[in-house]
Amino acid sequence: MDLDRATIERLVEQITKEVLILLREEEASAQSGSECLSCNGQCTGKCPDRTQAVIDAGASRIGNPLGSTSVAVEIAHMIDHTLLKADASQEQIAQLCYEARKHGFAAVCVNPANVKLAAQLLKGSPVAVCAVVGFPLGATPPEVKSYEAQQAIEDGATEIDMVINVGALKSRDYELVERDIATVTRTCHHNRAICKVIIEAALLTDEEKVKACQLAKAAGADYVKTSTGFGPGGATVEDVALMRRVVGPEMGIKAAGGIRTFEAVKQLVKAGATRIGASAGVKILQEARAAA
Amino acid sequence: MDLDRATIERLVEQITKEVLILLREEEASAQSGSECLSCNGQCTGKCPDRTQAVIDAGASRIGNPLGSTSVAVEIAHMIDHTLLKADASQEQIAQLCYEARKHGFAAVCVNPANVKLAAQLLKGSPVAVCAVVGFPLGATPPEVKSYEAQQAIEDGATEIDMVINVGALKSRDYELVERDIATVTRTCHHNRAICKVIIEAALLTDEEKVKACQLAKAAGADYVKTSTGFGPGGATVEDVALMRRVVGPEMGIKAAGGIRTFEAVKQLVKAGATRIGASAGVKILQEARAAA
C-alpha cells in the first residue's frame, strides 16, 4: 500500500515546512513551564506511572489554562488522532499523519492495513503509530489477536488497542477474557509496545465494566479504554470515573468514542482519562486555543 | 469457550428430538420433487456451478411456490443463519446452532471466536460453519486475514466470508485488493473451504462495485457478497443484479444485510442471489410457509 513517488515528495515537503512550526510550539511550551520537558511532552499520555500526577495536576491545569500554547500542546500530547473507517483511503491516512505531526498528537490510531504507510510517513517524528486489533467486535481468538498485533508491530506500530472478547465476558468465561488480554499484552511487551484494552463499555453492565477492568489489570495491560467508536455508545465521564476507581492510579485510561469538544476532553481528563481517542483532534485543539 | 455439561446435555436432548422433525421435512421435500436429492438439498446454496440453474429454476419456483414444505426447505438451504454481534453469548451461539439444525439452514455465520463452539454443536449435521474474516472493516493485511481464516478452518469452519480492503479499492490499489482476496482464497481452497468476498457495496460507487467483483473473480473466490450488515446499508436488488452481471453464472452471490422478509428473499434470489445471510431466518421461513 505504498504511495507514489510524487505524493511522497509532496508530503515530505509539507512535513519539512511544518517541522519549524512544531519546533516553535515545543520551544514555547518549554518556556511556559510545562512539566514534560524531560521526554518532550510525550509522557503525559504514555507513562502509566505518571497517571495520578496527570489527573491531579494536569487536569486542573487543563481546566484552568495558564496559557493557550501550553494547554494546547498538553492536550495534543494526550490525543490519539484517529481514522478507523473501512473506506479510509491512503490519501486520508497521509493527511491524518500530516496533521498528527503538525499538531504534536500522541499517536495516530489506524487499522492494521494502514500501519505500514503511517509508520513510513511518521518516521523520525515523536508521533507513535497505534493499531487496533480484533477491532471493533473483539470476537477473534487470542492467537489471532496476538498474530495481528505482532504483524502490526512489525509494520511499525508501538501501541496496540485491542478489543476484549465481549461475548466471553457476557458468558462469564473470565478465564478466556483474561487469557485473551494476557496473550496480546505479552506480544506487545515482548516487542516494547504498549497494550490498551478496549472494554466497549456501552455494551456492558457496571458489574461487567468492573470485571473487565480487573481482568485487564490482572493480565498486565497498560491501559483500559472505554469504547471502539463503533458500538452503541462512546466515552462517558461516569465510565471513566468508574474505570479509574477500579484500576487505581497505576494504569492509563483512554477515553474514546464521540469526543468532539474541548469541554468534553476537560471533563474526561478530570474524571481520570490520560489519553483521548478522537477524530476531531484538530477541532478540539482550536477550541482549546480559543478558550485560553 | 466450552459449555458446561448440563447445557450440552440439554442441547443434545433438544437436538435429538428435532432430528425427527428435520428428517420428516427432508422426506417431504424429496417427495415434492426437489431437484437437490443427490446432495441432500445443500447444493442450492453451495455449488457455484449450479448458480444459473438456481436462478432460472429455483428463483421462479420460490416466486411461485409449489408447496409450503418444498419452498421452505429450499429457502432454508440458502440461508446462512447469522449472529455476529460483539456481545453474542455462548448461550446465544448455542441457540443459533440449534435453530440451524432444526430448520436445515445452509450454515451458521459467526465470528471466529465462536467457530469452535459452533462446530462442536453442529458436528455430524449438514449445517456448515461459516466464519467471517477481517470483519467488518476489512482493514487488516492479507497475511492477517489468511491466518485468521486458517485458524477458523482448523476450529471447524468450512466457509469463510472475508471483507475486502475497501480503503485500498478507494485508493485504486487494485493489486493489493486482488492479492488480499487471492491470499485468503488460496488458504480456503487449500483446506477445502469456500471463500466468499464481501464487497460492502453501500460504501462503493457502481464503478467500484464492478471492480471489486472483477477482482474477486480474478482471484478465484467462490462467491461475492453484498454487505457485512455493519455498514451504512445492506443488500439491495440493484446491487445483486449488478454483481450477477459482472461475475457471470459461475460464481455464487450472497445477499446479506437487513434481509428480514420472505418477500425480500424472493426479490434478491430473482436478481441473482444464491445464498442469503440473515439473522431473521426463522421468521423468513415462517413467512414462506404462511405464503404457500
Task: Give structural notes.
2 copies of one chain form a homodimer. Helices cover 53% and strands 13% of the residues of chain A. By secondary structure, chain A is an alpha/beta fold. Chain A has one domain: Aldolase class I (TIM Barrel, Alpha-Beta Barrel), CATH 3.20.20.70. The first copy, chain A, has an 8-stranded parallel beta barrel, surrounded by 7 helices. In chain A, helix 6 links the parallel strand 2 and strand 3. The first copy, chain A, is globular, with a radius of gyration of 18 Å. The termini of chain A are far apart. In chain A, 58% of the residues are buried. At the A-B interface, helix 5, helix 7 and helix 8 of A face helix 5, helix 7 and helix 8 of B.
Task: Describe this structure in a few short sentences.
The structure is a homodimer of 292-residue chains. Chain A has helices spanning 5-31, 43-46, 51-63, 68-76, 90-103, 115-122, 142-155, 166-170, 174-190, 206-218, 237-247, 262-271, 281-291; strands at residues 79-83, 107-110, 128-133, 159-163, 194-198, 223-225, 252-256, 275-278. With 292 residues, the first copy, chain A, is an alpha/beta fold.
List keywords for this structure.
8 strands, 292 residues, eight-stranded parallel barrel, alpha/beta, 53% helix, homodimer, TIM Barrel
What topology does this entry show?
The structure is a homodimer of 292-residue chains.
Chain A: H1 5-31, H2 43-46, H3 51-63, H4 68-76, E1 79-83, H5 90-103, E2 107-110, H6 115-122, E3 128-133, H7 142-155, E4 159-163, H8 166-170, H9 174-190, E5 194-198, H10 206-218, E6 223-225, H11 237-247, E7 252-256, H12 262-271, E8 275-278, H13 281-291
Parallel strand pairs in A: 1-2, 1-8, 2-3, 3-4, 4-5, 5-6, 6-7, 7-8
